[in-house]
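**User:** I keep going back and forth on a fold encoding question. It is easy to fool oneself when nobody else works the same problem. Could you pick a protein and write out its sequence and tokenised fold? Could you put it straight underneath, so I can go through it closely?

**Assistant:**
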Amino acid sequence: MKPSLPSTSRRIRALVGAVAVVAAIPLVLTGCSGSGAASSGGKTLTIEDYYAANYNPIYKQCAKTVDAKLTINHVAGAGLIAKVLQQASSRSLPDVLMLDNPDVQQIAASGALSDLGDYGLDASGDVPGVKAANTYKGKLYGLQPATNSIALYYNKKLLADAGVKPPKTWDELQAAAKKLTSGSTYGFAMSNINTYEGTWQFLPMFWSNGGDEKDIATPEAAQALEFVEGLQNDGSMSKSSINWAQADVNSQFIAGKAAMMINGPWQLPALNAAKNLEFDSVPIPTRTGEATVAPLGGEAFTVPQTGNKDTMTLAGKFVGCLNSVKMQKVIAGATGNVPTNIEAGAAWATDHPEVASFVTTVKTARARTGELGPDWPKAATKIYTAVQLALTGKADPEAALKQAQSQSQ
């Protein structure tokens, strides 16, 4: 079994928590019970996900819309894919299955999912990269109501005091990070940990500079890795970044130990709760100043092949409800993400300026499985391995990429 990819969106569950999720859900939903079963409606749909239980009111709103009862099963994210593959083998799949978007193609390839086109569903109007992530061999297997990516957060006071403007290019970022580094405060922070999370954070530099996951040992990739290594070598980024998850990076930023950081919108509840912290964000700088090519996160909803056509049809209606523009806004508000529909996302950015940079970024963002499909995990492992080799001084960036590219599968 190929490993699942714990995208940044998966961290939402752990970092935001049930209280923050419920607080963000519109009042029309808060009257619903938080228990695992819904009492209204006719036929019962079983849902499986790795969300917190208090996310259930969102499901119940759509259950009411399609006239269904619900049984909701929450599974630990780390064990979801293994469980799904076992369920496919034993023919005990749920009626509606939530998946991290990089996992959709892997599960679709196993034959466990049904084509959403069979229920009259499509991803028209949604961000192209999201549609690509949920499409396998020309068929749509998942719909993703909300998406996310990463951007460059900055401490407004620290930048203003230093006379630094938010950077748009690598040169500007390097100069700003150097100028903002003082005492116990580093100018810049990101996660370079040896997990898929480290790959996720490096991808904007890698992709925006022309890096290709089919062969990571290219001059373009080396240039991107040299840039990150340079930030560490000139003292603008802590050497501890090789051990930091994104939550750790956020803690450094909140504590004033980093003036700028790469992170996602799921950190907003913690950032907004921090006392005396004024912050904003911009798209991650690129070498040339052109649009950032960043990875897309978020969860997709699918209809497994259960063999019960009537229930599968009802499940299709339920998934369609979750992906409606109305529910996209509800889910975006609950998770800190942005609506997947392009027009809804643009309106969301106007009403929610704190996520405007993410709305901009997702327009040109890419699905991690876009080129390699179910084989993406192999490339992801190579990428974070190369980053670790370079930042720990075991190899220069060019050699690190070549070594990681040639590693056995």
The radius of gyration is 21 Å.
